[in-house]
Write a structure and sequence with these properties.
Layout (H helix, E strand, L loop, with lengths): L14 H16 L7 H37 L1
Membrane topology: Single-pass membrane protein
Pfam family, one: SecE
Organism: Bifidobacterium miconis
Length: 75
Protein backbone atom coordinates (compact mmCIF):
# COMPACT_ATOMS: atom_id res chain seq x y z
CA UNK A 1 0.00 0.00 0.00
CA UNK A 2 1.20 3.50 -0.78
CA UNK A 3 1.45 6.16 1.87
CA UNK A 4 -1.60 8.34 2.16
CA UNK A 5 0.52 11.44 2.51
CA UNK A 6 2.91 12.25 -0.31
CA UNK A 7 4.27 15.40 1.27
CA UNK A 8 7.99 15.85 1.47
CA UNK A 9 9.26 14.74 4.87
CA UNK A 10 11.46 17.17 6.75
CA UNK A 11 15.08 16.07 6.81
CA UNK A 12 16.44 15.34 10.29
CA UNK A 13 19.44 17.36 11.43
CA UNK A 14 22.67 15.41 11.76
CA UNK A 15 23.57 13.57 14.98
CA UNK A 16 25.83 16.33 16.32
CA UNK A 17 23.11 18.98 15.95
CA UNK A 18 20.60 16.71 17.70
CA UNK A 19 23.01 16.06 20.59
CA UNK A 20 23.76 19.79 20.84
CA UNK A 21 20.04 20.62 20.91
CA UNK A 22 19.48 17.97 23.58
CA UNK A 23 22.24 19.42 25.79
CA UNK A 24 20.88 22.95 25.27
CA UNK A 25 17.42 21.80 26.34
CA UNK A 26 18.90 20.13 29.44
CA UNK A 27 20.65 23.36 30.42
CA UNK A 28 17.43 25.36 29.85
CA UNK A 29 15.49 22.98 32.09
CA UNK A 30 18.19 23.01 34.80
CA UNK A 31 17.89 26.80 34.99
CA UNK A 32 14.22 26.36 35.98
CA UNK A 33 15.07 24.17 38.99
CA UNK A 34 14.41 25.79 42.35
CA UNK A 35 16.72 24.69 45.17
CA UNK A 36 14.89 24.23 48.49
CA UNK A 37 15.95 26.19 51.52
CA UNK A 38 17.53 24.37 54.45
CA UNK A 39 14.26 24.62 56.39
CA UNK A 40 12.20 23.17 53.51
CA UNK A 41 14.74 20.39 53.00
CA UNK A 42 14.61 19.48 56.71
CA UNK A 43 10.82 19.33 56.86
CA UNK A 44 10.49 17.36 53.61
CA UNK A 45 13.10 14.89 54.88
CA UNK A 46 11.23 14.63 58.17
CA UNK A 47 7.95 13.98 56.33
CA UNK A 48 9.57 11.21 54.27
CA UNK A 49 11.10 9.65 57.39
CA UNK A 50 7.73 9.66 59.21
CA UNK A 51 5.99 8.18 56.15
CA UNK A 52 8.57 5.38 55.94
CA UNK A 53 8.14 4.63 59.65
CA UNK A 54 4.37 4.51 59.17
CA UNK A 55 4.69 2.07 56.28
CA UNK A 56 7.11 -0.08 58.27
CA UNK A 57 4.64 -0.24 61.16
CA UNK A 58 1.78 -1.06 58.77
CA UNK A 59 3.68 -3.90 57.07
CA UNK A 60 4.89 -5.24 60.43
CA UNK A 61 1.33 -5.22 61.77
CA UNK A 62 0.00 -6.97 58.68
CA UNK A 63 2.78 -9.57 58.85
CA UNK A 64 2.09 -10.25 62.51
CA UNK A 65 -1.69 -10.34 62.02
CA UNK A 66 -1.60 -12.60 58.95
CA UNK A 67 0.91 -14.87 60.69
CA UNK A 68 -1.43 -15.24 63.67
CA UNK A 69 -4.39 -15.82 61.33
CA UNK A 70 -2.48 -18.53 59.47
CA UNK A 71 -1.56 -20.26 62.71
CA UNK A 72 -5.18 -20.06 63.88
CA UNK A 73 -6.58 -21.46 60.60
CA UNK A 74 -4.02 -24.23 60.05
CA UNK A 75 -3.19 -24.83 63.71
Amino acid sequence: MAKASTSVEAKKPNIFMRVGLFIKQIIDEMRKVVTPTAKELFFWSLAVFIFVLFLMALVTGMDFGLGKLTLWVFG
